[in-house]
Amino acid sequence: MKLTLKIWRQNGANDKGKMQTYPIDGIEGDMSFLEMLDVLNEDLINKGESPVEFDHDCREGICGSCSLQINGEPHGPDRLVTTCQLHMRSFKDGDTIVIEPFRASAFPVIKDLIVDRSSFDRIQQAGGYVSVNTSGNTLDANAIPVNKQDADQAFSAAACIGCGACVAACKNASAMLFTSAKVSQYALLPQGQVEAATRVENMVRQMDLEGFGNCTNTGACEIECPKGISLENIARMNREYLSASIKG
Ligand code: SF4
Ligand code: FES
Predict the structure, then answer these.
(1) Domain segments of the chain as ranges
(2) Ligand 2 atom at shortest distance from the alpha carbon of 161
(3) Is 36 in the pocket of ligand 2 (CB under 6 A)?
């Protein structure tokens, strides 16, 4: 395949940045999107030009670092896949592909396509943990009965990989889907009840402090989420928050 890539280049947070066009040839349908960028970068390096910086780690849909806005959609045109799992067979010969970083003021650009998502880490640090009694008479976690439906829903919420596609998809750059997944995975389990009230308040406070927008129930986050995190988690977080506020 021959393609035209229009890629956002930005030399650090203070640079204005601009789109740059790169023709590319010899791309196979079985290549992943990141392998296609590897081909481009090898070519740029051979020509003595600076390669396009992009984030990646596992290349297996697990780590959440390969966050790219592709033709206006986080992680590109396919559903329930991360950018590293997107294959070039989803495009056709002659296509123009526009590649940008995730856009949100809480995700400042570090360089080219890499954004700083440490705001997500700070939301996690505000409440994404459980306290465990380590005095010696700790109850074995496997001995605590958990309703099957709750266990399944907690497991589904825990599938969130923190990629940030929900924020990039949202017109308000809201982080409600991410935060609600993190709140839900603990709220549904008995082990998560120790900090239940303070957790939801602290995580929502940190989310607001980071500058994420509010949720207006558009639902774009759920559609673009590569892990199928459900909007039901946002409803659950709102209930948890209301209950924590009433308890004071
Ligand atoms: S909720 Fe989905 S889109 Fe948002 S960070 Fe988690 S995995 Fe990514
Ligand atoms: S590189 Fe880890 S999810 Fe894509």
Answers:
(1) 3-111, 118-247
(2) 3
(3) no
